[in-house]
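User: Can you help me understand a structure? I only have the sequence.
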Amino acid sequence: KQFIVFLYTLCIYIIYYIQRKMLSTSKPVGVRQKGVNMSKHVSAVKPIVVSKKSSCFKTQAMKEPFPFLKNVKYHSDLWQTVRTEQHFLKVIGGLKQKGHINDKLHNIWTDFYFNYKNAILSANLPTHTEELAVIIQSTIADNVLMQFKKPYTFPSYHSRILKPYNYFQFGQRYVASLLDFERSYLGAYDRWEKIQDLLLNGHNVVLLANHQTEADPGVFDHLIEPVFPDMSNRVTFVAGDRVVTDALCKPFSMGRNLFCVHSKKHMGDDPALKAAKMDTNRRTLVALQKRLNKGGCLLWIAPSGGRDRPQPDGSCAPERFDPLAVELFRNLISRAKAPGHLFPLAMYSLPMMPPPNTVDKAVGERRITNFTPIGMSVGDEIDWKAIVAAAGKSATKDEQHEILAVTARNAVAELYVELEKAVKDQTSRPKYFVRPWDLVAPGTYSGTK
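Assistant: Let's start by predicting it. Here is the structure, written out as tokens:
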């Protein structure tokens, strides 16, 4: 018996030694055991020194062919051999002649292609060629035409579609082609670790975010997935009208987990559909509450109800948060069986796909694209109980809701100022902004599932 005890003790010691050795030599990849705090093993605030031998995505992985072109698939054989601009434009023209697309869509698509190609070529990277622009534009056209033939209807809760066609990979490929990996940053790594710990321990987390472009879900996943892949798998975006009705948006939306709602901005666009939209919202609320009761849910919501519009001076501060939207999600997480938390989230993606200067209710807007750096940063948890208590007993419910929404919006605005400066001005970037691709082994991140 003593010998068996000795062997058991020896095995435990060896396992412990191996684990300590691995932790001392490895870098964080975001997947951790429940309750384990990685911050004691990895400093989240150490500045990253970039050299010619950096493990940054661009300086390493970009030496090979564009990695996101792996496993490119098409619904139609029409696009299988399209590799040149001349061939692409010929196919688009042929679709117009056969009546598959009208003159308006043909003109929109031609404009979109040339704008996108110029953005790709402006990157001045060996991987960013005319052929890359043609292939990715072909995948988009292929998916949009599929929506004309077999339109997809989004349920109240939509689970991303990965098989037989990987819509997540399709969307990440497009965003990656416009993303300057060398100059893009994730802020407040330690707070993201806290959020990951909360999720792994069964808590719910709601991210109250500003919203700048249609590419924001892809931006979120590209910045989070390299270091927190579990969080990337969990996140569910609260989606409005346009992303589930616009034929160009729908294929990208099909690759995301979504709770589908109709915002007040578009509720009355078509009076005949208002009752149906309200019914959809009621079903979504029921689905939301059921999901939150299970715990471990990560939600992304833009309480402004739409994309932020640039001001005449070029600035793009987060717009006013709808107090009812903020209160709705505060109420949902407080009523759920699992604990819940609110966090402010700032996103910088405006140059990638800037929205029109005005809110256009019609679908089919012009798409402007640019090759650009992006960024994202999360703030400290919003203590909504303390905020409501500070309002005083004399404050009405509406006043409490307004105070909470203003506080949340101001927290995001403060984060955004710092984030925008960190992305634009590399010399003054705070040390707690990191490039996620520098924290994983070179060439291991392909942005696809």
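Now, to help you interpret it: Confidence is low (pLDDT under 50) at residues 15-64. The beta strands are 157-158, 185-187, 204-209, 236-239, 258-260, 298-301, 340-348, 375-378, 433-434. Let me know which part you'd like to focus on.
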